[in-house]
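A note from the maintainers: we've had questions about how concatenated examples are separated. There is no special marker in the raw files; a new sequence line simply starts the next protein. For clarity in this README we add a label.
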Amino acid sequence: MAIRGVLMHQLVKDLLNGNRRAAARLITIVENEDDQKRSLLKEIYPHTGNAFIVGITGAPGAGKSSLVDRLLQQIRSDGLTAGIIAVDPTSPFSGGAILGDRIRMQDHALDSAVFIRSMGTRGSLGGLSRSTREAIQVLDAFGKDIIIVETVGVGQSEVDIVKTADSTVVMLTPAGGDSVQTIKAGIMEIADVFVINKADLPGSDRSATEINMMLDMNGEKPWRPPVLSTVSINGEGVNELWLALQEHRQYLEESGKLLEVRKQRVRRELTEQVEYLVKTRIWEDVRDTIELDDLVEKITKRLQDPYSAAGELLEKINFFKEDQGEGV
């Protein structure tokens, strides 16, 4: 059920005034694809662009949530506020997030300067859903200084975070074959900081050496990702991680890269939004015009091919103009 525009405006007003319940409710509206979502995002957008966004990604079991919990202590000790979006696997039964990440961050649950929200992937293979990026805007408008996005951890699909974060931390574990997987997955290109977590286990020095060797093979670049070792269970190395993130932010700001990164993000968001609206509109028209089940039946029986059928669908809803000719 769509929320009335007046109530939506009041929620946004409460959000800008620091009301936590308003923030939680607005994120829920974003997640549930409420009819008023676009109006909400339009209203809060002028108040965004101030938070620094940190992405934490890596394979399942690397200790991302525990490290984020320790990192929060560093952020709060500097007097900064933080928003956490912990992307959990989507439950096959309820469709919601499993909430495992929030269990590991209970120490900050009562801190009014920290806002923690778990979100499901909603079937997104890249580790992030579109709603995740919109929830970031809500927390940005909420006034959080640092927003940390912890991805679900699905291995080689974990590259969507680079489209969202200003700084991306890639977490690995020793003796787990992660350094080889890093090469295969193309994650080398998205990392601004590498973290070898659980560094108290055997093989951590070797993992760090392998990553450093791969970085050396890539040649000199303006920013060389540091390779850090941490033990999240006792906080070892977390201060160094926080300092590295601050150094990367300083590099981005002084080099002008931060503006460039955010321009690229805006371009992607604009492109994705146009594609989403076009796709939604086309399918609304197709559903109103064509019996899809009949068409699927014909294609299944090889009475028609899907390529011609797709073109015919678009022609029937007048998607093509006369001067564009035929075809897709």
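[label: protein 2]
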Amino acid sequence: MPEPVPPVVSIVMPCYNAAAHLPQSVGSVQAQTLADWELIAVDDGSSDGTLAWLQAQTDARIHVYAQPNRGVSAARNAGLAGARGHYLAFLDADDTWAPGFLQKMLAALDARPDAVLAYCGWQRTGLADDRAQPFVPPDYENADKAEVLFSGCRWPIHAAMAKRKVVLAAGGFDATLTNAEDYALWLRVATTAPIVRVPEVLAFYHFHGGAQASSNRGRAALHHLQAQQRYLAEHPDFVAELGSRKARRLMLGELLDRGYACYWQDDLAAARQIFRVVMKHGHGTLADWRRMLPAWLPESWHRRLLGLRRQSRT
């Protein structure tokens, strides 16, 4: 009996206690204008009705795997192991795509046979501030690509499509990272060959009241630093080209920026965690250190100090 023809695209979806979101996320896959796909949904030890909902689906293109809870990276790697498509896309169980996502991303890659990855614009929903504005990233395929990609994650995981063989060659996802695991993978993939931009908003990140990995901003910032450190250790040629001083500035400057973002948005616990790491590395100006030093005080003292400073300005 002949082997079944593999789909063009394999979609990997890690699922953990996502029963409330699956109809919307899986529905956005089934609404794609490109129908030649398989969806590999990996239940990562859910305690709600996630697995039952997935197993009840009758669409033959949906394949369900179940494992004990091991985290999002391990779940994605389990999905990778079962993927058969020439291309890979990743969609978390609480996010969605526009109907033309697969078709437009595939067309962009087909038009550039030497490209290993396509990326598009995205929008955050469920927010009431400027972060909810749609965003189309610039074209990163230029002489500064490696440096720009190293300095920060340039697209969310569901705003990209990549060649499966390249993702596998890069080793998949680092299961020791619970944040920045997608950044670590894209950095290893996108610096090896050309990438291509699709200048449309096709991916949607949904904020909701449940637990989301992005909510722990201190951990996210430190895992981002960890991913950068590992990349430098694995790519000495990149360090030589960039220069160790500039590499340090890119890493710790990004970390300090994240610390300030937490600080100004009153996420003091995360800011303190980040500031202490920045100071341990001896980074920052005198003005930065004046703001960071109270992070070594007990948090209640730090908050009291900030309150006194605010009162003195009024």
